[in-house]
């Protein structure tokens, strides 16, 4: 007798035993669990194999869940064994409905398998992307040297020593050297050398340790070949601290020798240099650099400035100390917007350049200075000089990209950032710069993954979480925005974060609460004109307190003019000054500054939007609508527009209603400048 099967009864049995339901819930739960793991495991520092382990467990558990659902069922009396029901393997009868049911079951079973295959495929692809190709040149990464001293405050010495070795090797054009940001990412992480080399795309890794005690310093160093994992060279230096800076030069020479590099005369001259340094000045310099590596704040920058000045007081020819002083003072200027800070940074950079015209950090610092002052051609020239020294300098590529973006060359800026990420796919600086670029271009949904990647590399980076919050805010995703900003505030409260939280309250119509939050921003950064302007906006729309707004606008204008004294070509500052004048009743000045801003940045998202707000305040409805349509065309959210009290005078116009209707139905807004 042949074997037959009644498909209808079999499918009914599957349904009756709850197999469909278990399969559906299990597949959905597995998918959700994997999404959570993909997002949070990297942020929590879990290794890559942790996600694959979760997936493997989920895949293996699926058939177990199906079998258990067939054998047992949940009843009011508890879990009991299902009664055995004979399935008649009789006539094979398939109706369309039964085929759909059977197809659904097969699809659910396939889903878990697909998730497993997809995960492995994506991991393989990610590994390919994350591992840059090793070039024909010998390549090396210099890891942060471990501090073996009893005093943990001497951590700076190991970091500084390894950074100086890295900088020296980076000057050798015949070698590719991973940047400090990338190689230092692995500090204190339990990752083997071969994996580090693969991720950084280098063939060799230099690692070491330092111990400093009683005027003596012991440094161990070892050069490891990544593929085989064997040591090419290792040694231990036991010296007086006065000779510590000579160790870095000797280690660099040994690395070059073991890599069997044929050096040019210029490269040989770099390695054979005779260095004469004051050891105490060198120690101050290393400490100053350690403070600069932290997130910028008044406290950190002041400490760095003091240490660099101490180094210079002991050695007035110390070019690197002047370059560090330039970086620190420029960082302080970005917080204070005080022209004196900018001028002192410029003087320090110029002095460093006079002392040493072969130092890449000096050219990068000068480029940043010129960009800050709006001298974009000069900035680009300095970054080009830096790239002549090291074509793979992340700092120079990012600085170049930021300058090109401000100079209305977005395509070239994006290309420079893409080049930086291609050079080092593990560099948080490059990812953060790309995220900021995309945000400023109005491509908020594209910016979020780059901010998240930055946060995964640097979980304590407030700028990354601030960017995540700002991007979600611009996409009208307020809950995600607030969550990201609150995370950032737990890391380090800043004026910018309080300003952003205040803006979320302002756009929610909670103006009185916004006043309190903006006040905290002002307290943290009393020289920041935007904080004062935001406070004026909040008072302006708070009942019975409108008259208090004007003094805040006046102070914002005063502080902004100090910023414009450094960079008169900054369109964002110009349009904000126009807004403050408009809100304070200065019609002529408002129109003048708005015209200057629009001429400098006709396609800037924020210039267009702020122009609409201030023109609305002045009663220039037609011109305000032109600017508003331009902002929407560039990507500004209609939901934020509807929530902005500054645009209330436009809402009765027919043009405003047409703008909302066009957005609702997805109608493309046309402009004369569109191609």
Short description:
By secondary structure, the protein is an alpha/beta fold. It has 31 helices and 8 strands. The protein starts with 6 loop residues before the first helix and ends in an 11-residue tail after the last helix.
Evaluate the radius of gyration.
31 Å
Q: Report the strand count.
A: 8
Name of the top-level CATH class of the domain at 139-276: Alpha Beta
End-to-end Cα distance: 76 Å
What is the averaged pLDDT score?
80
Explain what you see.
The chain is α/β, with parallel strands linked by helices. Among the domains are: 7-130, no CATH class; 139-276, Rossmann fold (3-Layer(aba) Sandwich); 567-675, Serine Threonine Protein Phosphatase 5, Tetratricopeptide repeat, CATH 1.25.40. Helices cover 66% and strands 7% of the residues. The chain is built from 31 helices and eight strands. The chain has helices spanning 7-16, 19-43, 48-71, 96-130, 155-170, 180-184, 193-200, 244-258, 265-271, 279-292, 298-314, 319-336, 339-355, 360-372, 376-389, 394-406, 410-423, 428-440, 444-457, 462-474, 478-491, 495-507, 511-524, 529-540, 549-566, 571-584, 587-600, 605-617, 621-634, 638-643, 654-664; strands at residues 72-75, 78-81, 139-142, 146-147, 176-177, 204-213, 216-225, 231-240. Strands 3, 4, 5, 6, 7 and 8 form a six-stranded mixed β-sheet that branches. A two-stranded antiparallel sheet has the order 1-2. A hairpin with a 5-residue loop joins strand 7 (216-225) and strand 8. Helix 10 (279-292) packs parallel to helix 12 and helix 18 runs parallel beside helix 20 (462-474). The longest helix has 35 residues, at 96-130.
């Amino acid at each position: 007798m042949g074997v037959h099967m009644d498909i209808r009864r079999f499918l009914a049995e599957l349904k009756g035993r709850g197999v469909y339901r278990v399969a559906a819930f299990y597949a959905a739960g597995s998918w959700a669990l994997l999404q959570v793991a993909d997002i949070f495991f990297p942020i929590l520092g879990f290794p890559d194999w942790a996600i694959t382990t979760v997936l493997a467990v989920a895949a293996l558990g699926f058939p177990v869940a199906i079998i258990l659902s067939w054998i047992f069922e949940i009843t009011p009396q508890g879990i009991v064994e299902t009664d055995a029901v004979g399935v008649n393997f009789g006539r094979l009868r398939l109706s369309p409905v039964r085929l759909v049911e059977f197809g659904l079951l097969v699809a659910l079973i396939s889903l878990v398998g697909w998730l497993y295959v997809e995960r492995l495929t994506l991991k393989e692809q990610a590994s390919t992307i994350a591992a840059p190709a090793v070039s024909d040149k010998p390549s090396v990464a210099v890891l942060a040297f471990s501090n073996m001293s009893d005093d943990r405050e001497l951590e700076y010495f190991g970091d500084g020593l390894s950074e100086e070795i890295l900088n020296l090797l980076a000057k050798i054009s015949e070698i590719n050297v991973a940047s400090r940001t990338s190689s230092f990412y692995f500090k204190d992480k339990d990752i083997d050398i071969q994996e580090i080399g693969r991720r950084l795309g280098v063939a060799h890794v230099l690692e070491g340790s330092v111990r400093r005690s009683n005027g003596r310093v012991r440094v161990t160093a070892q050069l490891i070949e990544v593929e085989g994992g064997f040591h090419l060279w290792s040694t231990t230096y036991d010296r007086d601290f006065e000779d510590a800076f000579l160790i870095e030069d000797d280690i660099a020479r040994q690395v070059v020798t073991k890599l069997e590099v044929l050096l040019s005369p210029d490269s040989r001259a770099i390695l054979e240099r005779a260095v004469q340094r004051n050891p105490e000045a060198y120690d101050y310099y290393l400490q100053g650099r350690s403070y600069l590596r932290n997130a910028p704040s008044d406290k950190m920058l002041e400490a760095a400035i003091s240490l660099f000045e101490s180094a210079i007081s002991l050695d007035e020819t110390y070019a690197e100390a002047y370059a560090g002083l330039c970086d620190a003072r420029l960082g302080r200027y970005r917080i204070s917007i005080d022209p004196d800070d900018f001028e002192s940074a410029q003087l320090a950079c110029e002095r460093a350049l006079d002392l040493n015209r072969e130092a890449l950090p000096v050219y990068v610092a000068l480029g940043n200075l010129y960009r800050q002052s709006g001298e974009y051609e000069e900035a680009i020239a300095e970054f080009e000089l830096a790239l002549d020294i090291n074509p793979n300098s992340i700092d120079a590529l990012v600085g170049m990209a930021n300058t090109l973006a401000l100079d209305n060359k977005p395509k070239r800026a994006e290309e420079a950032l893409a080049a930086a990420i291609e050079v080092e796919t593990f560099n948080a600086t490059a990812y953060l710069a790309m995220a900021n670029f995309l945000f400023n271009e109005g491509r908020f949904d594209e910016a979020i993954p780059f901010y998240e990647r930055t946060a995964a590399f640097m979980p304590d980076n407030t700028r990354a979480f601030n960017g995540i919050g700002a991007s979600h805010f611009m996409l009208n995703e307020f809950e995600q925005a607030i969550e990201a900003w609150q995370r950032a505030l737990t890391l380090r409260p800043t004026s910018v974060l309080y300003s952003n939280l205040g803006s979320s309250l302002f756009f929610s119509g909670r103006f009185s609460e916004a006043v309190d939050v903006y006040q905290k921003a002002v307290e943290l950064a009393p020289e920041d004109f935007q904080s004062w302007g935001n406070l004026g906006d909040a008072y302006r729309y708070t009942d019975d307190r409108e008259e208090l707004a004007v003094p805040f606008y006046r102070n914002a204008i005063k502080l902004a003019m100090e910023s414009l004294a450094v960079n008169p070509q900054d369109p964002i500052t110009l349009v904000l000054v126009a807004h403050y004048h408009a809100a304070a009743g200065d019609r002529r000045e408002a129109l003048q500054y708005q015209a200057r801003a629009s001429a400098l940045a006709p396609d800037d998202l924020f210039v267009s939007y702020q122009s609409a707000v201030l023109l609305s305040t002045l009663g220039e409805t037609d011109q305000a609508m032109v600017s508003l349509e331009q902002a929407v065309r560039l990507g500004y959210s209609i939901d934020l527009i509807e929530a902005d009290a500054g645009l209330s005078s436009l809402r009765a116009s027919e043009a405003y209603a047409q703008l909302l209707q066009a957005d609702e139905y997805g109608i493309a807004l046309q402009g004369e400048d569109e191609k």
